[in-house]
Each structure stands twice: as structure tokens, then as C-alpha cells.
Amino acid sequence: MQVLLLGGHGKIALHLTPLLLNRAWNVTSVVRNPDHENEILALGKGRKGNVSVLISSLDDVKSASDAQKILDSVTPDYVIWSAGAGGKGGPARTIAIDQEAAKHFMTASFASPSVSKFLMVSYIGSRKKQPHWMPDDQWAAIVRTNTEVLPTYAKAKMEADEYMTALAAKRKQNPTAATHPFQAINLRPGFLTDEPATRKVELGITPKGRGNVTREDVAIVADLLLARADTEGWIDLVNGEEDVEAAVERVAKAKIDAVEGEDVDGMVKRFFP
């Protein structure tokens, strides 16, 4: 398998790359800064798959055709969005990267005959309605983050997530979807930390709207989700007590989707009137 990893020098991506390579998958890691190339190439030493680096700035992705050019140069089977402005460049750049560039890559990926999986790394609070499983105090913390702490980031992520959900729903309405299955996976971690992986999680839906999760555990979950043919939808993630492999198995088999309670039909109508 050929994997296109956008945001390849991010902390989650650096944990994820060796896991993908250990599956004998090839990874093309997209980074903006050429100084990061050697660090990423070193992740491929002793692995089953091959890693390459594509120097390209997501700031330059202004349309789906711009994203398509990158897809054409790599011809990936799977696309992973682990990129973001990271607060650099102000609100305008956050919207340009986390929202618009992400949407352009989704548009191109969903339309590409080679791509069969798109995994978005989002965040647990990217939703408009309080889910029935989340206590009031946890939801209040999310609302405060979305409206007071990181309003531009929250807006950008929510727009990208809803667009991805609408694309996936619209695709399932297409009669040809059965001949070309597509997994749209929205992985939604809580507050990210840099501690070593615990391999213990709460996955799928969780009442912990402000729970923590290590970046390494996020990478482990992403790798496991991509390795299966039965994972899709919104998958919330914080550290917990369940073994990570068992958690992924449970979520996949039960088809747990944290989009529950959100207006998916409204998303489709908004983006595809």
C-alpha cells in the first residue's frame, strides 16, 4: 500500500510513520521544511516499507486541483491528514490550512480512483451538539474551548469534519459506491500529551470531553484503524482502561460512530444543495 501522510513532521505523524512502514506499506511524508527530511528518512531504517519525503507547503493548496497534483505524483491508496497551522500565522492561516486545504484534499481524495481510505486527525470537541453520553460539565469545557480558547481552530476543524462526513454520506448514496468501497475515518483525540504510549484507551464514544491522550497512542490507534476494512465514522479517543487492540476491534465490530446526534442530512444539504 502507498500512504500519503500530510503533516509528516507533526508529533503524531512521527510516531505513526514507523508503524505504517512496519506493515510493509510505503509512506510519502509531506513536509514544508526541507530541514526535516533527514529526520523522517531515518524513520525508515530497518523497516519493511519505504519512506520518502515530498517537500511541499500546504499554504500553496488553494484548490482541489492543487491537491490533486500531489495525489497524482504519489498515487496513494490511503491518505492521512495529520497537518495543521498549529496556531502559526494567525486566524487566516488556520482557516487556510485546517479548513480549506483539508477540504481540498478530501475533495480530491474522494474523487480519486486509487484512494480507498482517508483518515482525518481531528479533535474530540469538534461537534455542534452535546452528545447524550457526555455530562454537562464535560460539554461545558468543550464549549468554552470552542468559543473562548481556540475559536478559529474549532471552527476550522468542525467545517472540515462536517465536509468529510457529508462527502462520505453522499458517496454511500451513489450506486457505484459498492464497487469502490471508501473508508472515511475521523479520529478525534482529546487533549494531546507527549508521554509514552499507554496502549490503554477509551475509544469510539467517551464521556470524557476534556480527557487526555498521548500522541503515541493516537498514532497506534490510527495505524490499527487503517489496517482494517471495517472502520469509518467519528471515533473519539482518550486514554482509559481498555487495551487498544480490543478497543479498535470493539468499535469496528459494533460500528460505533460518535457522529450520533449530529445533523448528517443537514451537512449533506449544506455542502451539496
TrEMBL record:
Domain of life: Eukaryota
Database matches in Gene3D superfamilies: NAD(P)-binding Rossmann-like Domain (3.40.50.720)
Pfam families: NAD_binding_10
InterPro entries tied to this protein: NAD(P)-bd_dom, NAD(P)-bd_dom_sf
SUPFAM superfamilies: NAD(P)-binding Rossmann-fold domains
Cleaved signal peptide residues: none
NAD(P)-binding domain: residues covered: 7-221
Family statement: Belongs to the avfA family.
Entry protein name: NAD(P)-binding domain-containing protein
Lineage summary: Eukaryota, Fungi, Dikarya, Ascomycota, Pezizomycotina
